[in-house]
């Protein structure tokens, strides 16, 4: 194609400027620490607690979104009902809403005197705001659009004739879904899961309000990195960031390998 060399060079330059150089700076700053200092920083009890909360809540939120995001995408594609366009537009609300606004709104709703919090805490004895459960709620909120918008186009392009053929051969609705529909959607569903998880691990604005930020209880790792920066401990902040980056990379690589396996099983390249 004409202009291939120029466009390729611009692409590599842009990726290096936006992605590679900043990530390299994080690693280079971390290398200024001794191994003992690095290890003590990234494995302290408070940091380990923030890892468990951040990645645990992110996985739970992404898993919830994989289930209910698929249901939302299915309803939007397969059914016609009044207000469908409004609901379809509301799916993108977490994209458009500033994260700080989302955090304040969720805190107001789930606090002890909020609309939802009053019922949950007064009736069920379930406290959401200022607990790890509140972190899961916030991460689920911001991750929903990734699953819906990834699965929705695949459902729209799915060949309905295959479902009709399965039904004509005597397959039940459940068998048609499990053996025809779900294998087609699975790779995109796993992609949405990975995107929701990646987004959740780095989320800050919508979490700090509803989490309560109590050390060893509801303190997320991004907040701990900000705390290190405010203390002018730049090497400590980048060390924790490097650990988060490596763990996220391993998890996303595992998810992508599973996605490739699912594509192979479904016969797609």
Structure description:
It is a single chain. With 269 residues, the chain is mainly alpha-helical. The protein has 13 helices and no strands. It has helices at residues 4-30, 35-42, 45-78, 84-90, 93-96, 99-110, 115-123, 132-157, 160-168, 173-201, 205-211, 221-230, 234-266. 31% of the residues are buried. The model has no long low-confidence stretch (mean pLDDT 86).
Question: Topology, please?
Answer:
Layout: H1 4-30, H2 35-42, H3 45-78, H4 84-90, H5 93-96, H6 99-110, H7 115-123, H8 132-157, H9 160-168, H10 173-201, H11 205-211, H12 221-230, H13 234-266
Helix pairs in contact: 1-13, 3-8, 3-10, 6-8, 6-11, 8-10, 8-11, 9-10, 10-13, 12-13
Short account of what is shown:
The protein has helices at 4-30, 35-42, 45-78, 84-90, 93-96, 99-110, 115-123, 132-157, 160-168, 173-201, 205-211, 221-230, 234-266. It contains 13 helices and no strands. α3 (45-78) runs parallel beside α8 (132-157).
Low-confidence stretches: none
Strand content: under 5%
The H-and-E topology, N to C, reads as: HHHHHHHHHHHHH
**End-to-end distance:** 24 Å
- Structural class call reads mainly alpha
Shape: globular
Average pLDDT across residues? Answer: 86
Instruction: Please give the count of helices.
Output: 13
Rg value: 22 Å
Major beta-sheet overview: none
Query: Helical percent range?
Result: over 70%
Query: Can you count the beta strands?
Result: 0
